[in-house]
Amino acid sequence: MSSRSRSRSSIAWTLWVCLVWTSVLGEVHDTNDDLNSGLSDREGHIEKRAGRACPRKWRLYGDNCYFFIKKNLPITTARQRCASKGAKLASIQSKEENNFIASKAKARTWVGLSDAENEGLFLLEDGSAASFLNWRLGQPSNSPYDEDCVVLSKVGKWNDLSCTTEKRRALCKMNKPLLGLPCPNGWVTGTVGDYCYLFGEEKMTQPEAIAFCAVNLGLLAKLDSQEEINSIKQYLTHVFWIGANDALEEGTYMWLDLSPVTFFPWASGAPSDQGGDEDCVEMDPQTGDWNDVGCNREEKRFVVCKKPANTK
């Protein structure tokens, strides 16, 4: 392609992006105040959900992330499940932490405390002695002589139970990841490069998604490597828009910042351009695969926005 053709393509692409933003922002003009006023609520929800540093479905408290296993399991299996997530059964070390966990627990839940090695000496998962205890009246009872593990009730009181015959829900705990540079409230700090990510809570059309990111001073996510994809997959469960598009020239993909796409983890058979108008791109977070899809206003997906860290 000649330099003149490339220049024309860049100009056309810029005009296309501007037209999309102008069109969408014009449509949402009457609801722009709602978008902005609702942003703090949305940010708060995302922060609670993702903890700004915790994986999806984990809960943030202090410097730790917590995950509730909702299936009744033997404690040995529960420990294995936590370990598979890079965590341990939760060791509770203060009244405040205990109250937080009790407020979220829906049933009796295994926690990381046991006197299996030395009867009456309860140790945390790391082998250290417990400095905080919150036994129910009459507990621990060690009846009938083999109750070496501990569960927390919905009201926060503890009870010793058998480690071999009982099955209960479980609570995993890990340190909050120390991630990159700080990001604004509601944004998750990335681990690959110095970027922040915002995960939309609702499905949107592609133009609406562009507008949503623009209102939040970002762009639809530009994902340049498998490493970056892997770093955000944990926060996602639904197919979402990314910022790649070949609307100007079929087969030539560009990001919304006008840079060319050079990394293509296409799903098998993609891109297909089925119907001749599949110019936008979605990603399946379960596989990390991309697929081309129509940009029209009927197609709706979830949204991931991206911007450099240390920007408001």
Automatic annotation (TrEMBL):
Pfam families: Lectin_C
Keyword Chaperone found: no
Protein name, UniProt field: C-type lectin domain-containing protein
Species of the source: Elysia chlorotica
Domain C-type lectin: 61-163, 192-298
Signal peptide: 1-26
Database matches in InterPro entries: C-type_lectin-like, C-type_lectin-like/link_sf, C-type_lectin/snaclec_domain, C-type_lectin_CS, CTDL_fold
Keyword Signal: yes
Keyword terms of this UniProt record: Disulfide bond, Signal
